[in-house]
Specification:
By secondary structure, the protein is an alpha/beta fold. It contains ten helices and twelve strands. The strands form three sheets. Strands 3, 4, 5, 6, 7, 10, 11 and 12 form an eight-stranded mixed sheet that branches. Strands 1-2 form a two-stranded antiparallel ribbon. The chain has a two-stranded parallel sheet with strand order 8-9.
Length: 297
């Protein structure tokens, strides 16, 4: 069983699509198909269910994928451990986050303090971040909601209030505080399901017995403030959005909800080898947010 076959299977299992996997692996589609067929013949079971042009990971494939992720993860840890021993103070760290807006100032300061460490960034939804950690594709994740999965450990970096952003001419503009029930039927701009802002919105409205009218959902959280200013709808945004980018067309209102906040955590896999570069980035990140939260003298 060759390592190249296992890596090919891992990519195909992630995409459940031969052509997309071939594009990522930079090989021809027939080569990918032959590799998967040989692997299935060697194992004696089908790893995918074929449905026309689609392939779906079946129960055998899912069970095998867990082992493959673990095995390839261990090999990657070993490679990086040896590279660290031979490379001194350099190295690299791979980081995933739901939004990259949180990382700007942190990365600027880290690169200044550790110019020899290379940083790779990935923007990923929560389920993808958990998968990347398990597959050792990333070392650390900055997550705004809990990541599911055994072996994942986290440390809280910050907790910030989430506010209701409303267009300047809206009936709620000028209000200091409003209950969630009063927002029943209001048009809302929100990221796609799975993003922390959408999870929070759905939870608060469900508890209040209300329902927002979703008029826009997408994968560009940074554009939400502009859409609110354009009058498209309301949105839940963290205090950071108000403080970092003032917008004349938006008014801010507190929500009368006890748990209307975002908790940012730094997540890693407890079994993954932590190189010196990863440890330095993790320690620097914790200290960066600790200083940011400290009151000014």
């Amino acid at each position: 069983m060759e390592l190249s076959s296992l890596r090919c299977f891992q990519v195909v299992a992630r995409h459940e699509h031969i052509s997309r996997a071939a594009a990522e692996l930079r090989v021809a589609q027939p080569s990918v198909s032959r590799t998967i067929s040989r692997l299935e013949a060697e194992l004696g079971v089908p790893l995918f269910d074929r449905r026309g042009r689609r392939i779906l990971l079946n129960q055998y494939g899912a069970a095998f994928l867990r082992r493959v992720d673990r095995a390839l993860g261990e090999l990657e840890d070993g490679r990086r451990e040896l590279a660290e021993a031979a490379g001194g103070e350099g190295g690299s760290v791979a980081v995933a986050a739901e939004t990259l807006l949180t990382l700007g100032e942190l990365l600027q300061r880290f690169r200044s303090a550790h110019p020899g460490i290379a940083v790779r960034l990935f923007q990923s939804p929560p389920d993808e971040m958990a998968r990347r950690l398990n597959a050792r594709e990333v070392d650390l994740c900055l997550a705004s909601q809990p990541l599911a999965g055994a072996g994942l450990v986290s440390v809280e970096l910050m907790r910030e209030t989430v506010l209701l952003a409303v267009p300047a001419g809206h009936r709620l503009a000028g209000r200091q505080r409003v209950g969630v029930a009063a927002l029943d039927g209001e048009p809302f701009v929100t990221p796609s399901p799975g993003h922390w802002q959408r999870v929070l919105t759905d939870r608060l409205f469900a508890r209040a017995g209300a329902r927002p009218a979703i008029v826009c959902e997408g994968n560009e959280p940074g554009a939400i403030l502009d859409l609110v200013a354009a009058g498209l709808g309301l949105a839940l945004l963290p205090v950071m959005a108000r403080d970092w980018r003032p917008c004349e067309g938006v008014a801010w209102v507190e929500l009368d909800a006890p748990d209307c906040y975002r908790t940012l955590t730094l997540v890693r896999h407890k079994d993954a080898h932590r190189t010196g570069a990863v440890r330095r980035f993790a320690d620097f990140t914790v200290e960066h947010f600790r200083r940011a939260a400290a009151p000014s003298p």
